Automatic annotation (TrEMBL):
Species of origin: Afipia carboxidovorans (strain ATCC 49405 / DSM 1227 / KCTC 32145 / OM5)
Domain 4-oxalocrotonate tautomerase-like, chain residue ranges per copy: 2-56
Gene Ontology MF annotations: isomerase activity
A Pfam family recorded for this sequence: Tautomerase
InterPro entries: 4-OT-like_dom (IPR004370), Tautomerase/MIF_sf (IPR014347)
Record's protein name: Putative tautomerase
Amino acid sequence: MPEITINLAAGRTDEQKRGMMADITAALVKNLGVDPEVVVIQINEAPLSHKMKGGKTYLERQAKT
């Protein structure tokens, strides 16, 4: 059973996340020949203040734009 874990900064809609998971499921079905029922996908989301890149939190980076 393929199991995929995705780490994201919070902020995407449920519709965006569902679409992404559906596309990943379809890719696994196509490329691995597995049944969609065995594919498990989990999204781990972190608040923007809990992720950092280049010494600044994503919240700080977002404030600059």
